[in-house]
Specification:
The structure holds 2 protein chains of 2 kinds. Chain A has 3 helices and 4 strands. By secondary structure, chain A is α+β, with helices and mostly antiparallel strands. The radius of gyration of chain A is 17 Å and the shape is elongated. Chain B is an alpha+beta fold. Chain B has 6 domains: about 150 residues, no CATH class; about 200 residues, no CATH class; about 90 residues, no CATH class; about 40 residues, no CATH class; about 80 residues, no CATH class; about 50 residues. Chain B contains 30 helices and 26 strands. The longest helix of chain B has 17 residues. The mean pLDDT of chain B is about 90. The chains are: A alpha+beta, B alpha+beta. At the A-B interface, strand 1, strand 2, strand 3, helix 3 and strand 4 of A face helix 20, helix 22, strand 16, helix 23 and strand 19 of B. Strand 4 of chain A pairs parallel with strand 16 of chain B, so a sheet runs across the interface.
């Protein structure tokens, strides 16, 4: 925080709304998920080594597959 | 969530919506009786005044007094049931049994008085006549509702039911009263099971066989209720249907899913049981003798005969033989006797015993002594306006958490709120005088997904246990909870992309975003909207909207230039299917180049039509001709090379003539354009001679 009364300049930003993504604890876990064919088919791309971008409208399929793999993902609903 | 039946504001709003669905002449006719406006007012004002009138007890009382006896009895029954919404068929059955066999007239009178309203599906044409609406909706599905502000004023009406108590019968043995927890426990168990896997209905609105068999065989739901003087058929099915009617389960297009537990469950046992009593008339496909009994051809007798059984007890202060209730129904209910299995009156007594002892007794509405029954203080409070019974003493420390992760729950200390909380994170394993639950990874996970936290779970167990939670169990819960932290799925997040990593650092420091996804992209902890006051938005993308055009194809047909401001996160992944990035030039937009091999592979994995769709969405044009060459070239017939001579005529007419004239037509290899034709090398001299015969000299080639 800056001194009292000092205001920060606004940060230029681009918003990406209603994005569905999977954030893993580490890169190895992301690799493990991508090695699962059914899950990989629902992934549109990889934002980073821990972040997988899910195709629009495929949330339920991803959750089903994660649970079938024995994972218990924390689901954050965000703007929904 | 299904609204609490007694929520007056909800029902007033629904009354307003129903009035808005009336044709104006009908609206004015209804308002004239309910509001009695002095001047000709706009329709909107009439609706507002009508809704306000419904909340005015003295006026409602006057309007009720103006109604015929049968309509008043109808609204009284609605009030006593606690359920504002009823099928018209059931209401007609009830008023007929109460001695008013006037058909639709009582419903029509209450509708015309503005004290009862039709349930109108959205998009329905305006109602201009109640009888026509009823005829169109049909007796099996037409539904009406009475706002609680009306039915509460009507419920005191004398229904002229007989006192069936037999003072000559001695009460054999000590009267038995249930603790009221049996059905809340079963409903919580079925709610938990539906939470683990939704239940679907067939198109005929019946249960699928596998779901039915599961409900019938489930060791928790199908177990006979404890301390119950009668067998309940298909208790699991009744629990499912009842849970749906009470709002514990949400029905979306024929699929039941677990909804948040109703607020009444946190308010104590009395409000919980009152809510379940109010929901009971909405249970259609269950019968106290037959069990699961779906029907699409007739009205179920359960809602009407069940309520009448309770109202008969409400009219009888003393002990009533079950057979006397059955006898009254036999003589007065217009359709109930016809639905009983062979056995006549004896089967009727079984039906009434099944309902009163199997449903109402565990709900703490009825106390039993042999075949004699009477309302409990709670039953008398809910059905006969008796005083509210005192709240039972609390025994908060009623759980015993065992080292093997099982929980013993002693019923005397259970409350609906605790039952509901336990159902969120521990699996019900047995319902009895002492219930058993089991802590499992799956149910702990569901509990955390429902909004509980690990400290909340541990605190619930600690606060309600007589002994500390065993360390091994606390450790298990911690491990299961931490496993959930390994993968976070953002269902619908707002990602914030900054221009530089330094700007993302600044945003993290200011708390604009909480989680770093890449070196330039962050997200808030819950994936929600960031504080926009700290941001200057340069672009906004919605990932559930149609893909945005953000790529330009260069004249060479292979270079794709990305408009960075309009691009989205999916674009790079999509581009990578058929293009390779071009090394970036400073100050020049990001570019990719179509790659023949990638493009061909993409066409094999999907289709050229899909690729064209992507190009139309992203560039505004289909795949470029170069791209089509990359894809289709290898599949097409091999192109051929040949030496030809081009002959160019001064006008198109002459060229047409040469192409048409039989003497020269066979010499033309191909028409190349309006004035040009191609001629094979060995055809040139014959063409020259043929044209010379016409006086046309063909010059060249030089």
């Amino acid at each position: 925080m800056g001194p009292v009364g000092q205001t920060h300049p606004r940060l230029a930003a681009k918003l990406h709304r209603r994005v569905c993504l999977v954030l893993t604890e580490d890169a190895v876990l992301a690799e493990e998920l991508l090695a699962r064919k059914k899950l990989a088919a629902e992934v549109a791309g990889r934002l980073s080594d821990r972040v997988l971008l899910v195709r629009p409208g495929r949330l339920d399929a991803v959750l089903d597959e994660l649970r079938k793999m024995g994972h218990t993902p924390q689901v954050v609903n965000g703007s929904r | 969530m299904t609204p609490a039946p007694a929520d007056p504001e909800h029902w007033s709003a629904r009354a307003g919506a129903a009035l808005a669905g009336y044709a104006e002449p009908l609206l004015r006719a209804v308002a004239a009786r309910l509001v009695r406006p002095r001047a000709n007012q706009p329709a909107d004002e009439l609706i507002d005044k009508a809704v306000a009138t419904l909340a005015n007890p003295p006026v409602v009382d006057r309007r009720l007094r103006d109604l015929p006896d049968a309509a008043r009895a109808l609204l009284a029954v609605v009030g006593r049931s606690g359920q504002p919404r009823w099928k018209v068929g059931h209401l007609l059955t009830l008023v007929t049994a109460l001695g008013h066999p006037e058909g639709f007239a009582p419903v029509a009178d209450a509708l015309a008085a503005g004290l009862l309203f039709p349930e109108l599906p959205p998009g329905r044409p305006p109602v201009d006549d109640f009888a026509a609406w009823f005829g169109a909706a049909g007796v099996l599905s037409a539904e009406v509702f009475a706002p609680p502000t009306v039915s509460a004023r009507a419920r005191g009406e004398n229904l002229r039911l007989p006192d069936l108590a037999n003072p000559d019968r001695e009460v054999g043995g000590a009267p038995r009263t249930a603790d009221g927890l049996d059905w809340p426990l079963r409903l919580a168990a079925v709610w938990q099971q539906v939470g683990a896997g939704p239940v679907r209905f067939t198109q005929a609105d019946t249960l699928f066989k596998k779901d039915l068999q599961r409900l019938q065989a489930d060791e928790v739901l199908a177990a006979p209720p404890s301390d119950l003087p009668v067998r309940v058929p298909d208790p699991g099915v009744l629990a499912l249907l009842w849970a749906a009617a009470a709002g514990l389960l949400a029905d979306t297009d024929g699929e039941l899913t677990a909804a948040p537990l109703p607020a009444a469950w946190d308010a104590g046992l009395g409000p919980t049981l009152a809510g379940l009593l109010a929901a009971l008339p909405r249970v259609e496909a269950w019968d106290p003798v037959a069990g699961y009994a779906p029907s699409d051809t007739g009205l179920s007798p359960t809602p009407s005969a069940g309520l009448l059984s309770l109202l008969l007890l409400a009219a009888s202060p003393g002990w009533v033989p079950v057979a006397a209730v059955a006898g009254w129904l036999w003589d007065h209910h217009p359709s109930w006797a016809g639905t009983l299995p062979d056995g006549g009156r004896a089967a009727g007594a079984d039906w009434v015993a099944g309902f009163l002892l199997g449903v109402a007794y565990p709900l703490q509405l009825v106390e039993a002594a042999g075949d004699l029954v009477r309302l409990t203080p709670l039953g008398r409070h809910l059905l006969a306006d008796g005083p509210e019974p005192p709240t039972p003493p609390a025994f908060p420390q009623t759980l015993l958490v065992q080292p093997n992760a099982e929980i013993l729950a002693y019923r005397q200390g259970l409350t609906p709120a605790l039952v509901g909380t336990l159902a969120r994170f521990a699996r019900w394993k047995g319902l009895g005088p002492a219930c058993t639950l089991e802590l499992t990874p799956e149910q702990t996970y569901r509990g955390l997904e429902s909004g509980l936290t690990l400290p909340m779970i541990v605190q619930t167990l600690t606060r309600h246990s007589s002994r500390p939670v065993p360390p091994a169990v606390a450790d298990l819960l911690r491990r299961w909870a931490s496993k959930r932290e390994r993968i976070t799925v953002f269902a619908s997040a707002v990602l914030v992309e900054f221009g530089t990593p330094a700007e993302l650092e600044a945003a993290l420091a200011r708390g604009v975003v909480a989680v770093r996804l890449t070196d330039r992209i962050g997200v808030t902890a819950d994936g929600g909207e960031p504080t926009l006051g700290q941001l200057r938005l340069v672009a906004n993308r919605d990932y559930e909207a149609k893909p945005q055009r953000c790529v330009a194809v260069a004249d060479d047909g292979v270079t794709l230039a990305v408009d960075a401001a309009a691009a989205d996160l999916l674009l790079d992944a999509e581009l990578a299917r058929f293009a390779v990035p071009v090394p970036p030039d400073p100050g020049v937009s990001r570019k990719s180049r179509l790659d023949p091999e990638l493009l061909r592979r993409a066409a094999q994995q999907s289709s050229l039509a899909d690729i064209d769709t992507w190009f139309r969405d992203r560039t505004g044009e289909p795949l470029s001709p170069v791209g089509r060459l990359f894809v289709l070239g290898p599949q097409a017939a091999a192109p051929s090379a040949a030496r030809l001579t081009v002959v160019r005529f001064p006008t198109a007419e002459l060229a047409d003539g040469v192409v048409q004239w039989p003497e020269t037509r066979g010499l033309i290899a191909e028409r190349l354009g309006p004035t040009a034709v191609a001629v094979a090398e060995d055809g040139l001299e014959p063409l020259r001679r043929a044209l010379a015969g016409l006086g046309v000299a063909l010059a060249g080639p030089d």
